[in-house]
Amino acid sequence: MRKSTIIKDLQGMLSRALPKVKYIDKDWGQLDLEQPPVGWPCILIDFEEVDPKQLKGGNEKDTAIIVLTVANRRTTSSSAHAPRDAKEASYITIDLTDDVHDLVQGYSASEEYTPLSAISFYKQNNLPGAECYAMRYRTTYNVTPTLMALPDENQ
After folding, report:
1. Quick one: angle between helices 3-17 and 92-104, nearest 10?
2. How much is the pTM?
3. What is the rounded distance in angstroms from the CA atom of residue 152 to the CA atom of residue 106?
4. Would you state the pLDDT for residue 81?
5. By C-alpha distance, which of 53, 57, 62, 72 is closest to 133?
6. DSSP assignment letter at 43
């Protein structure tokens, strides 16, 4: 199985289930840029860590940690004295993390990988003017080596 399968499955499922999310993509560092090239709110997906275990026959069983980063621009106050509408709007991002978790916990689009299981949730404070949360999930899958034909040296 290819790791990209899981990212593509999550991206497709989340984009169908959460049409209010403007940008769902593989995380290639978009939020690290001064002007992040994303729509708000956004969900970024990537592998954080893969722990391979060697099996017989050159096969392996990988345990992977996948991170979904949920981020949104912060434009309203959640102060106790803020107007009610503004206050409600300020909770959109944290509420979105609940929606994402409800969809991702136990999710698997195929028998190629085990259902995702939550392992942590934490706030990231590295994005000025935005709220950003990292949601980490674990899955396992088998990898069967594929032999790639090497180019012929005589050609």
Report:
1. 120
2. 0.86
3. 46
4. 61
5. 72
6. E
Q: What's CA 133's distance to the chain center, in Å?
A: 11
Mean pLDDT value across the chain: 89
The residues, ordered by sequence, that sit 6+ positions from 139 with a Cβ below 8 Å of its Cβ are 6, 63, 64, 66, 108, 113, 114, 115, 116, 117
Question: Measured between alpha carbons, how far is residue 146 from residues 1, 143, 149 in Å?
Answer: 10, 9, 10
Residue 29: closest CA among 39, 40, 41, 38: 38
Distance CA 4, CA 13 (A): 14
Q: Which residues does 88 contact at the CB level (< 8 Å), separation at least 6? A: none
Task: Check if the beta carbon of residue 137 is closer than 8 Å to that of residue 116.
Answer: yes
Residue 149 to residue 83: CA distance in whole angstroms: 65
Give the tens place of pLDDT for each residue, 106-145.
999 999 999 999 999 999 987 788 999 999 999 999 988 7
